[in-house]
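Is protoporphyrin IX containing FE placement plausible here? Inputs below.
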Amino acid sequence: MNAVGSVDQRYNAVLRSLHWLVFLAVVVAVLTIELQDVYAKGTPGRLLMRTTHYVAGFSVLMLMTLRLLARAVLSTPAAVPGANWMQVSARLAHLALYVLMLAMPLLGIASVLLAGKPIDIYGFVLTPPVQMDRALSKSFKNFHEIGATFVYILVGLHAAAALWHQFVLKDHIFRRVL
Ligand code: HEM
Ligand code: HEM
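Reply from A.M.:
I modeled the complex. Tokens:
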């Protein structure tokens, strides 16, 4: 058995799988929305990119909810040993990633529905449950776009920290999530 706090301890297989599924869904959400401008407005290609963005974003919400539930019932390995500041920043970064990955899809969904538009996800159509509110829709859209910048920064820092652990500190941190 591993010592408490050993970097060799792994997350449960469910949490490991969910970690990479979320990553994949985020990559698809970002790529599709960035690629939509390759297509002219009103073309099927642009619509496909937009719909795929919604589906991938909605998947992030579902997967993160599952992950929170799984985290509540499954045990997680002790924190990676290291300086206090490293442990605190890792905890804060993970917490911020959870908040962001839940807030982004919720802001996106709210902005589309408040614009009076339905959302078609896997053929399941969400219709606006409330009256159209263009101003509020615009605010949510702005927060969604600001949030996107934080996604780039936080995921970038998180991945850089993981690579630094793996290749500079050589503590095999990837084993915990692979
Ligand atoms: C974690 C999930 C999500 C991520 C990382 C994400 C990311 C992004 C990014 C990077 C942009 C482009 C921002 C910009 O132009 O500056 C964007 C735009 C947008 N997203 Fe999301 N998004 C997510 C989920 C969703 C969901 C679930 C919906 C709605 C169902 C949604 C609706 C939109 C809309 C309407 C726009 C504006 C597109 C435009 O102006 O052409 N997003 N999103
Ligand atoms: C959308 C992208 C990502 C999100 C939202 C994300 C989120 C998280 C979260 C919240 C944790 C803490 C574990 C937990 O509480 O369940 C974690 C751990 C981890 N992630 Fe990510 N991650 C992402 C991408 C990546 C990438 C690209 C890498 C590698 C290059 C990576 C490597 C790791 C490693 C090694 C751990 C274990 C760290 C530890 O146990 O302290 N992640 N990730």
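Short version: The radius of gyration is 19 Å.
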